[in-house]
Structure formats: structure tokens, C-alpha cells
Write a structure and sequence with these properties.
about 350 residues, alpha/beta, Rossmann fold, 7-stranded parallel sheet, 15 strands, binds UDP-4-deoxy-4-formamido-beta-L-arabinopyranose
């Protein structure tokens, strides 16, 4: 019997998850995706098939249903787990905190309990730069910076999630753990076959830029023009979703090497870009004039944050391959292909 290197990918039909599936297959792993498609498009499996040549195993389950999730652990032996399944809309989490605490934390606890019960050796957690809160004067954040005050229940579920993992590690459990702190994932697979499927009006910048350019929205509002930054607009670390996907493969490979049993790692380019810079890049690569205006600041926005990515570079031997221009170009390519579908 061929011993497949099965990786359980919860929430694997989502934006980051679907791109990570393609990277896992390319690296020789067999992804088993658990997703109930509440935050994903049902065309994703067939889109992935066009990229990797087959439809990976998709199991329609809700990670907050432990009994249902257990059936997957009965069926497969996993060499690792990548846990994406969580709600991630910052604004919605403020309106409906219990929805976020229940789903994000119960889903993590269920998956971890089953991982321990079935002796799965490696676990990668989808965390976020939101755990830093407002870094203030320290704009380039390193992993040892204390976790800040989460500006939203969503961000708090990531802070609590990391603390749960730390306590599981400290309890002497066998499982090796990496928390990956994402910065701002943007773009789409170069093929234009998978990308971000925002549900309703997107909160995030890039889908709003491409959606406005394609005519879905009248104009985009730039939230705030009076920040203490180079051009008065907020600065973020925009990372290509495929670079982020590859970081997950590197994380699993690192854990399989047994070099360490518990790490927290930033995954960002190490470069900050302002909103006006992103708009400028978009207009350059698309040759489309974007209809935008300045508006009031958005509550909860961090002024400026970008990754110190040294740890990802040196520990995981991971380096971003794509530029901001590539990310914006692939995002625009995806938006146009979605329009044609
Ligand atoms: C970026 C900048 C906005 C829309 C979020 C999550 C974080 C992570 C990344 C998951 C801000 C400005 C946006 C618009 C704008 N996700 N903006 N007009 O808030 O940095 O982080 O995505 O892990 O957890 O919180 O990303 O894209 O919403 O905003 O001016 O129409 O773009 O004000 O300054 P954010 P974002």
C-alpha cells in the first residue's frame, strides 16, 4: 500500500486554503480538505482539479461538530494538520462576537483534541498579524513583540488560539506546532483559476480595488488621509497568496524535520506599502484609472505594520517570490476571469 503523506486541511476551500492545497500537491503531499463551504465557493474543487489534475478529497464537515470531524480521523492517517477553518471578518466579529468565539475556538479545540487522540505529529495554525494590535512606534514587528490588545473579537480569537497552542505544547503533548502570523494576503493563483471569492461587499482593500475597477462598485473610499505615514494613508505588508501558501508547505516540512516542536512565525514580505501606493501600482499594471476618494478613518485600523520576516527566511528557508506588482496583476487577472465565468 502506498503510504500517502496525508495532510488534513480544515477550511481548505477558502482563499488561503485553496491556494495552499495546490502548493501541498506540488510538494508531494495528499491534502484531505474538511470544509462545509460556508465561506467558500462550491466551484473550488473543480478549479483546483484544473490546476493539479485531480480533485483532492473534500469532506463536507463543520469543525465545530467533533463527532463528525472524528470520522475523518478514523478514515485517514495524517502526517500533519493545517487549520484554516475560522471566520475572519473583523467588522462582523464586533457585531457578533459569540459567533466568532464559538466557531473559531471550538473548531480549534476539536481539531487539536482529535489530533492528540490520533497521534497526528504536526500542526500548523492560521494566525494573523492582528495579534500585534497597534504596534505604535515599532512598525516592523518581530515575533517576540508581546501580543497587543486585539482590536476585534476576530483578532482576539487568534490571540487566544495561540495561547491554547502554547498551553497544549507546555502540557508535554507530542504534537509539533507552528503558528503562522499572516500579514495581508492578496492576489490569486497565476493561472487565474482560483482566487478570493469575497462574499458581498468586501472589507479588504484589494478586492475593493479590483471590484471597483471592473464596475461592481461605484468608487472606493480610502479610509483616512491624515495618518503619520509617508503619504498620510495606512501602510500594510501585502503578501502574494501563493507565497503564503508556500510558507505552509515549508512549515509542515520544517515540523516533519523534527528541528523544533513549537514556533511562532511571521509570514510577510518585510515591505510596507501605503494604500495610495497600492492604487498607483494597480493603475500601472491594469492601465485602468481607479475611481477613488478620501473618506474618514476606519475605526480599529492600525496605522502602519509590516513583518520582520527573518525567522521565516532563516528557519523555514522561505522567501517570497512575488512582488507587489505581481500580486496586483494576478488579483486583477482573477477579477476579470471571474467576470467572464
Ligand atoms: C487594509 C488597509 C484599510 C478597504 C485584515 C484583517 C487581518 C488580515 C488582513 C486575516 C486599511 C484600507 C480597505 C477599503 C480602504 N486578515 N482600506 N478602503 O484591516 O489590514 O487586515 O486583512 O488574517 O486579520 O484585519 O486589511 O484590506 O481590510 O485594509 O482604505 O475599501 O486598506 O482602512 O488601512 P487589514 P484591509
Amino acid at each position: 500500500m502506498i503510504h500517502q503523506r496525508n495532510i488534513l486541511v480544515t477550511g481548505g476551500a477558502g482563499f488561503i486554503g485553496s491556494h495552499t492545497i495546490t502548493a501541498l500537491v506540488e510538494a508531494g503531499y495528499n491534502p484531505v480538505i474538511v470544509d462545509d463551504f460556508r465561506g467558500a465557493d462550491t466551484t473550488v474543487p473543480n478549479r483546483i482539479e484544473k490546476i493539479v489534475g485531480f480533485i483532492p478529497s473534500f469532506v463536507i464537515k463543520d469543525v465545530s461538530d467533533k463527532a463528525g470531524l472524528k470520522e475523518v480521523f478514523e478514515q485517514y492517517t495524517f502526517v500533519g494538520i493545517i487549520h484554516f477553518a475560522a471566520y475572519k471578518a473583523v467588522g462582523e466579529s464586533v457585531q457578533n462576537p459569540l459567533k466568532y468565539y464559538r466557531n473559531n475556538l471550538l473548531g480549534l479545540v476539536n481539531t487539536l483534541e482529535l489530533a492528540l487522540e490520533y497521534n497526528v505529529p504536526n500542526f500548523v495554525f492560521s494566525s494573523s498579524c492582528t495579534v500585534y494590535g497597534e504596534p505604535g512606534e515599532i512598525k516592523e514587528v518581530t515575533e517576540d513583540l508581546p501580543k497587543g490588545f486585539a482590536a476585534s473579537p476576530y483578532g482576539n480569537t487568534k490571540i487566544i488560539g495561540e495561547d491554547i497552542l502554547k498551553d497544549v505544547h507546555k502540557s508535554g503533548s507530542h504534537i509539533n506546532i507552528i503558528s503562522l502570523r499572516y500579514f495581508n494576503p492578496i492576489g490569486a493563483h497565476p493561472s487565474g483559476l482560483i482566487g478570493e471569492f469575497p462574499i458581498g461587499k468586501p472589507n479588504n482593500l484589494l478586492p475593493m480595488v479590483t471590484g471597483t475597477a471592473i464596475g461592481k462598485f461605484e468608487e472606493i473610499t480610502v479610509f483616512g488621509s491624515d495618518y503619520a505615514t509617508t503619504d498620510g494613508t495606512c501602510i500594510r505588508d501585502y503578501i502574494h497568496v501563493m507565497d503564503l501558501a508556500n510558507a505552509h508547505v515549508k512549515a509542515i516540512e520544517f515540523l516533519e524535520s523534527g528541528k523544533s516542536s513549537f514556533e511562532t512565525i511571521n509570514v510577510g514580505t518585510g515591505q510596507g506599502a501605503s494604500i495610495l501606493r497600492v492604487i498607483q501600482v494597480f493603475e500601472e499594471v491594469s492601465e485602468v484609472k481607479l475611481n477613488w476618494k478620501f473618506g474618514p478613518r476606519r475605526p480599529g485600523d492600525v496605522v502602519e505594520i509590516y513583518a520582520n520576516a527573518d525567522k521565516a527566511n532563516h528557519l523555514l528557508n522561505w522567501y517570497p517570490k512575488y512582488t507587489l506588482e505581481d500580486s496586483v496583476r494576478h488579483a486583477w487577472n482573477w477579477e476579470k476571469k471571474l467576470q467572464d465565468d
